[in-house]
């Protein structure tokens, strides 16, 4: 992979191992700058990424981070050997020189996010549209899988839950189920598992391309194995330190997911909602009217399910929509309505089969979607209606809404 803009290494050591490691990795031009000159070097070189060597004063790092944050496209900022209290756009990296072999893979993964951002900016007729979509902190839409059963698990759950959506798993088996049914922005593996189990779990993740680039923060001492996981961090400390190491990596991953959904929407001619991966409301209305007409003409079945997530916040609703987008059949389609309800159309499906499919989707949402309010259980109310002879698209939608209202009244 080639990058035309240079990678800037901020260091006061002319023989810096960091500089040597990145140069040997075959990245595009790797240039060095001293700490006092770093700000001017960024303005002059407009680097594709910035790597700060260990030892840079925290105040100087904060100034550098503020300089880099507004740059477009995204400029990754990696700080080596820093500990806690980092600016939001600074990603940590271990100070252990033996780990420098993993620095280039982490940088390549970050640069792929930059390339994705540049692609989205180029393809949008108005790049301001992308700024509107990603103007909020990507963490507001991020979900992290927390695995553990030790004493630190409750404090980790609270600390993570204050910033991101959290899906909890008390076993590796439960974690595997979550990984297979939903999109996640990171994994935090807490104590409670033997080194052998941790080693096996990380090996499986490194061998699966779906999870290889996930941020993975492990809150126990590193096992002896070596893993091809560019965003893997081992943090020995309390919940605050673990969360502090995880959030910058999770933020980058969530931003990458936003960009991927935006590009998918562009590929579909703007018919997909970049927040959810489902159809926009306008596209849904058009496709639904066509589907009803074709079903009536051909004498085929067609059913509609409406999912209502009472007391759920916007993150949980978007989360549920993305779960449905991932799990529904290729022949089906759906949308997230402005009132927060989800409509899913099951093509060529009678009422009995539609009810079974809707129950399965509802069960997955109940088990894996979580509200920011930890006490609020996400338990969707589901209404299903099937198309009657000579019924219009508007009529079947009215019926499915009325079913939900009757259920609420009772």
UniProtKB/TrEMBL annotation:
Highest rank taxon of the organism: Bacteria
Name of the protein described by the UniProt record: GGDEF domain-containing protein
Organism: Rhodopseudomonas palustris
Phylogenetic lineage: Bacteria, Pseudomonadati, Pseudomonadota, Alphaproteobacteria, Hyphomicrobiales
């Amino acid at each position: 992979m080639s990058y035309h803009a240079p990678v800037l290494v901020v260091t006061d050591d002319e023989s810096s191992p960091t500089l040597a490691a990145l140069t040997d990795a075959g990245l595009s031009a790797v240039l060095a700058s001293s700490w006092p000159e770093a700000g001017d070097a960024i303005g002059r070189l407009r680097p594709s990424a910035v790597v700060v060597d260990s030892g840079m004063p925290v105040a100087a790092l904060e100034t550098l981070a503020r300089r880099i944050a507004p740059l477009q496209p995204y400029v990754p900022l990696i700080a080596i050997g820093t500990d806690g209290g980092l600016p939001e756009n600074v990603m940590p990296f271990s100070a252990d020189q033996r780990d420098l072999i993993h620095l280039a893979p982490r940088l390549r993964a970050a640069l792929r996010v930059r390339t994705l951002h540049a692609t989205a900016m180029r393809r949008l007729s108005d790049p301001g549209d992308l700024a509107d979509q990603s103007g909020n902190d990507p963490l507001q839409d991020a979900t992290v899988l927390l695995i553990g059963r030790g004493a630190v698990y409750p404090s980790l759950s609270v600390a993570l839950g204050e910033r991101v959506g959290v899906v909890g798993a008390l076993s590796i088996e439960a974690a595997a189920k979550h990984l297979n049914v939903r999109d996640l922005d990171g994994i935090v593996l807490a104590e409670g598992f033997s080194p052998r189990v941790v080693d096996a779990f990380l090996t499986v993740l490194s061998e699966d391309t779906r999870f290889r680039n996930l941020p993975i923060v492990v809150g126990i001492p590193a096992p002896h194995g070596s893993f091809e996981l560019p965003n893997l961090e081992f943090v020995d400390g309390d919940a605050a330190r673990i969360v502090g190491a995880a959030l910058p990596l999770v933020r980058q991953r969530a931003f990458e997911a936003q960009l991927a959904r935006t590009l998918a929407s562009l590929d579909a001619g703007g018919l997909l909602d970049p927040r959810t991966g489902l159809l926009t409301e306008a596209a849904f209305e058009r496709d639904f009217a066509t589907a009803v007409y074709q079903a009536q003409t051909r004498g085929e079945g067609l059913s509609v399910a409406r999912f209502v997530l009472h007391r759920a916040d916007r993150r949980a609703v978007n989360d549920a929509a993305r779960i449905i987008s991932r799990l529904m059949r290729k022949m089906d389609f759906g949308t997230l309505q402005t009132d927060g309800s989800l409509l899913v159309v099951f093509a060529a499906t009678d009422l009995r089969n539609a009810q079974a499919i809707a129950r399965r989707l509802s069960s997955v949402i109940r088990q894996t979607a979580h509200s920011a309010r930890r006490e609020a259980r996400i338990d969707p109310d589901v209404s299903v209606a099937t198309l009657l002879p000579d019924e219009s698209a508007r009529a079947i939608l009215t019926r499915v809404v009325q079913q939900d209202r009757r259920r609420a009244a009772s």
